[in-house]
């Protein structure tokens, strides 16, 4: 069994996020700081990546003052608490090959120092010296102490309710 370690290329990797509420959704990006992907006998076998929570950008709010206010709220204790937790982490615990480029990934996602397992499908393309991998992770924010305007913890929110789940659409590029 031969294992090769590929380094994530941060400049070519990205996370697009989407958070939904009763009256619509917001979206943006978060930077990937670093990471690795492991291949064993030509198949994805492991890896990890570090998310820079201070890099959250909101793309759909075009008013500068509103965008800054919203970003500051995402950086606050209500959400990512970036002053105390400037990084979030994902580590693969299992990688099940399904077919050609399809895998089921199981891993641990750590946000605000709290770790929970997640499972998602990923598309992985392996070429000479390069791996591209993408998948959508559905995160229940309340498991990470993000309870602001959650219907599980506050009643009568009406149209101010924010849904508990948000999406991280992860795209990784890694090279030898």
Automatic annotation (TrEMBL):
Coiled coil: none annotated. It holds the Pfam family YceI. It comes from the Bacteria. InterPro entries: Lipid/polyisoprenoid-bd_YceI, TTHA0802/YceI-like_sf. Residues 5-175 form the Lipid/polyisoprenoid-binding YceI-like domain. This is YceI family protein. It comes from Dyadobacter subterraneus.
């Amino acid at each position: 069994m031969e294992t090769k370690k590929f380094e994530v290329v941060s400049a070519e990797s990205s996370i697009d996020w989407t958070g939904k509420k009763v009256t619509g959704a917001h979206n943006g990006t978060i930077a990937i700081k670093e990471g690795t992907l492991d291949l064993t006998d030509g198949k994805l076998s492991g890896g990890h990546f570090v998310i820079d929570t201070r890099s959250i950008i909101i793309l759909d709010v075009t008013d500068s003052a509103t965008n800054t206010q919203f970003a500051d709220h995402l950086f606050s204790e209500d959400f990512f608490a970036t002053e105390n937790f400037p990084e979030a982490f994902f580590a693969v615990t299992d990688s099940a090959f399904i077919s050609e480029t399809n895998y089921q990934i199981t891993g641990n996602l750590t946000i605000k120092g709290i770790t929970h397992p997640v499972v998602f499908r990923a598309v992985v393309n392996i070429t000479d010296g390069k791996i591209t991998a993408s998948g959508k992770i559905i995160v229940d924010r309340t498991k990470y102490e993000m309870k602001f305007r959650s219907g599980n913890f506050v009643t009568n929110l009406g149209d101010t309710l924010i849904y508990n789940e948000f999406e991280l659409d992860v795209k990784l590029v890694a090279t030898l």
